[in-house]
Amino acid sequence: xxxxxxxxxxxxxxxxxxxxxxxxxxxxxxxxxxxxxxxxxxxxxxxxxxxxxxxxxxxxxxxxxxxxxxxxxxxxxxxxxxxxxxxxxxxxxxxxxxxxxxxxxxxxxxxxxxxxxxxxxxxxxxxxxxxxxxxxxxxxxxxxxxxxxxxxxxxxxxxxxxxxxxxxxxxxxxxxxxxxxxxxxxxxxxxxxxxxxxxxxxxxxxxxxxxxxxxxxxxxxxxxxxxxxxxxxxxxxxxxxxxxxxxxxxxxxxxxxxxxxxxxxxxxxxxxxxxxxxxxxxxxxxxxxxxxxxxxxxxxxxxxxxxxxxxxxxxxxxxxxxxxxxxxxxxxxxxxxxxxxxxxxxxxxxxxxxxxxxxxxxxxxxxxx
Amino acid sequence: xxxxxxxxxxxxxxxxxxxxxxxxxxxxxxxxxxxxxxxxxxxxxxxxxxxxxxxxxxxxxxxxxxxxxxxxxxxxxxxxxxxxxxxxxxxxxxxxxxxxxxxxxxxxxxxxxxxxxxxxxxxxxxxxxxxxxxxxxxxxxxxxxxxxxxxxxxxxxxxxxxxxxxxxxxxxxxxxxxxxxxxxxxxxxxxxxxxxxxxxxxxxxxxxxxxxxxxxxxxxxxxxxxxxxxxxxxxxxxxxxxxxxxxxxxxxxxxxxxxxxxxxxxxxxxxxxxxxxxxxxxxxxxxxxxxxxxxxxxxxxxxxxxxxxxxxxxxxxxxxxxxxxxxxxxxxxxxxxxxxxxxxxxxxxxxxxxxxxxxxxxxxxxxxx
Amino acid sequence: xxxxxxxxxxxxxxxxxxxxxxxxxxxxxxxxxxxxxxxxxxxxxxxxxxxxxxxxxxxxxxxxxxxxxxxxxxxxxxxxxxxxxxxxxxxxxxxxxxxxxxxxxxxxxxxxxxxxxxxxxxxxxxxxxxxxxxxxxxxxxxxxxxxxxxxxxxxxxxxxxxxxxxxxxxxxxxxxxxxxxxxxxxxxxxxxxxxxxxxxxxxxxxxxxxxxxxxxxxxxxxxxxxxxxxxxxxxxxxxxxxxxxxxxxxxxxxxxxxxxxxxxxxxxxxxxxxxxxxxxxxxxxxxxxxxxxxxxxxxxxxxxxxxxxxxxxxxxxxxxxxxxxxxxxxxxxxxxxxxxxxxxxxxxxxxxxxxxxxxxxxxxxxxxx
Amino acid sequence: xxxxxxxxxxxxxxxxxxxxxxxxxxxxxxxxxxxxxxxxxxxxxxxxxxxxxxxxxxxxxxxxxxxxxxxxxxxxxxxxxxxxxxxxxxxxxxxxxxxxxxxxxxxxxxxxxxxxxxxxxxxxxxxxxxxxxxxxxxxxxxxxxxxxxxxxxxxxxxxxxxxxxxxxxxxxxxxxxxxxxxxxxxxxxxxxxxxxxxxxxxxxxxxxxxxxxxxxxxxxxxxxxxxxxxxxxxxxxxxxxxxxxxxxxxxxxxxxxxxxxxxxxxxxxxxxxxxxxxxxxxxxxxxxxxxxxxxxxxxxxxxxxxxxxxxxxxxxxxxxxxxxxxxxxxxxxxxxxxxxxxxxxxxxxxxxxxxxxxxxxxxxxxxxx
Lengths: 369, 369, 369, 369
Known about the structure:
The structure is a homotetramer.
Chain A (H helix, E strand, L loop, with lengths): L1 E5 L7 E7 L4 H24 L5 E9 L2 E3 L6 E4 L1 E9 L5 H16 L8 E9 L2 H9 L7 E6 L3 H13 L2 H6 L3 E12 L2 E11 L6 H18 L6 E4 L12 E2 L11 E2 L30 H20 L3 E6 L11 E6 L5 H9 L1 H10 L6
Parallel strand pairs in A: 1-15, 6-7, 10-11, 10-12
Antiparallel strand pairs in A: 2-9, 3-6, 3-13, 4-5, 8-14, 9-10, 14-15
């Protein structure tokens, strides 16, 4: 393992940050893929003593069809969720996948009923070559994991607003906002411009007037709570009240009509999409947490960056390269952009903790989207 | 529109570059999505005079099942390709989609036969709200397009090797190499380490010995052609001749067994995956080329960067921000990292050419993966 | 309406009778189709005041994959149930269909869990032409409904044995027998030869020896209960204990592995398959109970035959012809084979009761398979 | 084997006869299932020397969506054809199935293009128990095959009209009539009433007036050709010219919109549906022609009846019973209803020819629907 340390780059004057909430079609796919991977991991451990090869990171959602109506509409055709991947069949893979997906969907979409989904697994037997790589715990791909800390102000606010809108507290107070939200922040110098897309739920609203009042009250609430007096905060920017065009849904997600989704299109392992920062393309959700460096190294890089910042007070950007066939605990290169020094030990210690990361992912203590 | 120019960052000492070839399962999905979008665009123009809203960027591939055999094996179960998306039905959307997908698959996988695929379209009617945004040609999303020029040496070589392996010339000389290839390059200082994954085709090989000879000859050929005397060049690093484990296929793609694919997991619009460079997460393939800034602004940013480099000799990294509902010809921010000066006019002139970009994409003159 | 009465034919010396139980893959399809039709009918009545056109009689089941094991095995891949048909979308058709199918499956397969099924509806909007025929309640097809009474001895015993094996009483006493059973009776003169196929359930059996003992005890029990001292009664005739080939399942139906199913392949509306008796080809299950003569006239013919027999003591075979576009209460021809006389009024009165039949079908009081 | 001969029953005074043409959705399913079975049989013979177990008799068609237009409309969404069944995988089952289905569809629907279909095979590996029964060529089920000869006048005319409408000669002269036709004949005493449903093709018709003229001319042509001066002959009885409701299609089959289909819902092996005659419920199409008595015994019974009639001039109805596990050349009972005598040898000789029947089915010389 080679550790290279270079100075931290300057922060840009302008940035764009985005977070897709839990009920966004892309996040739904990420969440389903991850729920299936975790359920399979637990079953493998129980049945065989250790996690077997699997890769269920090709989850795609085809939107349903709904008919909204003030006071409550209907889901006419179900949302289809294709779970495509490979797994070792020492456990009943597809029934585990269906159950994990269904339980997860009910957890995040409390208004949805079983009959609003077709969960359609197509999980093949994994190729034997790939399976053998898991047993020896060598990297199963050549890729790069990326992490950074701390968040900029825009990043922090974006994440906090999104998490607030998805919180139990908020959903109790504003049941008319569904779990499908998206927060996009533009910062230009000091100026923050925050656009929120939020799927409103028809059963809790009697008219377009109620919708409007609710929307404006929420905008006000966010401005207050996050102390955004000088920022622009706008929900559902495309609404057109004259034409009756508003963002209304039956169960609180655009997946019920019109919006499809796919794993890996949403937020990265740190919870954000940050095109003006280093980012990994890897879709972490659904990959096995033992040998898939596309998953593990992103989590690891994030943890190293956070620890460097915590211990030294200096920002850090971390990139970890993998090589297919190399032991995952010995990455060929770790590149750290930081002004801190003497951080080699942090890197090494965190890499030692990879098995812990695996288990924390399985237990749901580390989230990857 | 605001144009901000900052100095170009230093190139890193170490980099990772990857290119997935035309027959890789992820690239197959990108290519199918793009072929469908182009076919729809042409049909809309013919039928209604201009391109209508569509978004068919959720193509997923579930691998088939094959039985390889020296001298020629069989495809037991077909590769399934789900084409998920939205489109305006003023033209026969799904039959256009199937035809475009099939024609494309035959073009890139000459050994595949119709019966090796199930092409399964699920393209809904687009939500009316989104459709209206196309008519006025305003940005349909808030995102960031990214481009840079010139390529580093590692980037250039990675792209050229991949394109060489996918070239007619190469495939005529080495028919035993299928279109599913992947080239990954690590540069560490001056040292290049190039790993290639290539799906060999069983019908052109009589034995594992022939496979080995062919593979070694190709490694040698690449070293020569690209003058890589000091680089490591390795094909199919996981091969194990003793165990008979080699990378063998029937029609030249891992999609026939074991490897699934999805749009947006592969190369960016410049043809590369470059985690150590600014990158967009957007899946460009399959998006409509009129209002989808996730597609257009990536192409545009790349063209601006290339023109800056061509006219000034200075490297450039370009990021273009979009805002949902804003005219696409007036992006809120263009950030250019370059040491060139007086490049505002280049930016403006290139933005003026957006309608040309649209038509070039439709005509297949601009490739997005 | 023309009523033609001819003498009853002689009973054949030899006959074949069959009944597929509730858990047989073909019966599962019939039951799902019928459950969906009933649920849609109730929803239409509630929402619009009367039953709208629908036809969901193309239900097909693709078997899953299971791994049986003495003491309890696993379902590796789910059973797929395609619900294909047409319906009026004044109610949320597909979500009603999924819910009705799922509830029904749990009712008849108590060992199955949600994740053992993929319920996949593809119910199109009905063609407007056909819908209009429902509103006027004219026959929507040209076909023939058939019924007869009373049952022969072989018919009666076949039905009673099958119903006994599917009864709660039996399933409590012999939990190791699943709901997928089939009873076939050959009568040759006086001699009855009864073959039973029964899916045994692995979790209730510790070994092949237990299986054998259970099977023999059940054969004995049937012989006793139905007083079949001189008949041959044989369960799972293809079992081969030496080779370990027995009919074992995880959830009690061959649909879990190896046996597909389809609507209309199973029993007729009288509960039997009787090739040596007049029979209708019509698949009654899933058709709307208002205008689908292929459903209504079979039930009606059976009711007329039963009433003739009840009131006159004479056997009767009844065939009712329909004509597309004719009022369903005025069939062009009713042919009765009976030695009874003066039965025209019975025919006419029963035809008057068609609206009652519709409602009894909706309420589940008349079963059609 | 026991052969029982009883007198032939009297012919009824009234009868109903139906034939679904080659392009009817149910017949499409029968034809696809049979094409797949034949293609598999040929592949098994070539690869392994003899036909292996297979059963692909659960083909279901979910209608597409079309937009008809005088002068030529469009197929908006494809027709989906699910090929569900079991087969031995010593040959590439699903790719053979897709190819056979596609070739067959093009043969019978010359206006359809590849992109008008999604051919979706789900053919599992056959259960080992069932496979072993094929190897020994014992009956794989307990069922009854039925045949009769000669046809009544109504039966003959029904079949001939349908075959005329599906003939090349007719389709050349009247290209505006598609292959999806259905002929239903009611005979009441001497009176014939013939109703024809025929899918007209929009591209060959410029207006509803042309449709009307064509339809009336065809009615006249049929009356002439089949000398039906006193019969009622009516095409598309539900047409309503005022409302513009006529039976119009884009490619000549109702499967393109609104009508689903399934194997075994259409004509029997003699080409007719005859509810007033003995009939088998068995779906012959798609079953393997070696051990599936539900297929073989229906063909055999028909051949015995035809030969009895040919050699003796006496009508015959033949029923052949099978028993699971019995050699197929030794059925437990053959029941012949005829007034001919000394026909035991005919029965025995025809049973000897079962292997010939198998090969004729594979070669397409015997049609089963």
